[in-house]
TrEMBL record:
Family per record: Belongs to the DONSON family.
Compartment(s): Nucleus
Provenance organism: Aegilops tauschii subsp. strangulata
An example Gene Ontology CC term for this record: nucleus
Keyword field: Developmental protein, Nucleus
Name the UniProt record assigns to this protein: Protein downstream neighbor of Son
Chief localization: nucleus
GO BP annotations, alphabetical order: nuclear DNA replication
Presence of keyword RNA-binding: no
């Protein structure tokens, strides 16, 4: 669906990381991109073993480039048991942090990541512990199902009126005990394991169409923090750039 332009985004959610797949937009045949919110030495080694190219754009540490000759020489030293050999990954300190985010550009690299997640999940603890991977998509897909989050609505008196907050007030509007309409406020809490961004956007759009002002607080899923760091980095660098006149309307880099 992603490659046939029937879908522009979907997530693979695990307790260890979140994989984000994005279809190239605006121009026809623009390649797909993918991001792994955080990674470990084992994941990076597995990807390199299968020839999947990636970059670490948020990593401040110097990325060590290990060639096949280096690995063969190291393997021979281990085989001959010439003393105690120890290979230290220079990036081990950034494992499972936002700096370990992996970026995949181009259809070949994106398909390689998809292939590894699909066929080598026994090597990934976060995937091997589940029956099937959890996918989040804004459009229905084969073998998918709709999911309804828990929604809790509350009616409360404002704290600045000197009255205690209450839930489920049932006084008649004309009664002496009913508070003035201006002293009431309302809250809605949406709870789920993961709330995709298109759900949050839909809620904001619905609220904006019916009210002039509302406050929104969102709790970020810890394993997806790297995606937010990347978005913040891209957004900050792109604010100073004026939109191109030749770009189609609504096109974003």
């Amino acid at each position: 669906m992603l490659r046939k332009n029937q879908l522009n985004i979907f997530y693979v959610y695990t307790a260890q990381f979140v994989a984000l797949f994005i279809r190239g937009n605006c121009l026809e045949k623009q390649p797909c991109n993918a991001y792994l919110s955080q990674s470990t030495r084992g994941i990076r080694s597995l990807l390199r073993k299968h020839g999947v190219r990636f970059s670490m754009p948020l990593c401040n540490a110097e990325v060590e480039q290990v060639t096949d000759d280096d690995l063969m020489e190291f393997s021979k030293i281990q085989t001959l048991n010439l003393g105690q050999t120890l290979h230290i990954d220079a990036l081990s300190e950034v494992d499972n942090t936002t700096e370990s985010l992996l970026s995949f550009t181009g259809n070949k690299s994106v398909h390689g990541l998809y292939d590894v997640l699909l066929n080598y999940k026994s090597f990934l603890n976060s995937l091997s512990a589940t029956d099937v991977p959890v996918l989040y998509s804004p459009a229905p897909f084969q073998n998918g199902c709709l999911h309804i989050p828990e929604v809790i609505c509350r009616e409360m008196r404002k704290a600045d009126t000197g009255l205690a907050s209450s839930i489920g007030l049932d006084e008649e509007p004309g009664s002496a005990f009913a508070p003035p309409p201006g002293n009431m406020c309302y809250s809605m809490e949406i709870k789920d394991v993961v709330i995709p961004p298109w759900v949050a956007s839909g809620i904001c759009a619905a609220m904006s169409s019916d009210t002039d002002h509302f406050d929104l607080t969102i709790g970020t899923e810890p394993s997806s923090m790297g995606l937010n760091a990347a978005f913040t980095s891209i957004g900050a660098s792109g604010q100073s750039k004026a939109p191109s006149e030749s770009s189609p309307e609504g096109c974003e880099a």
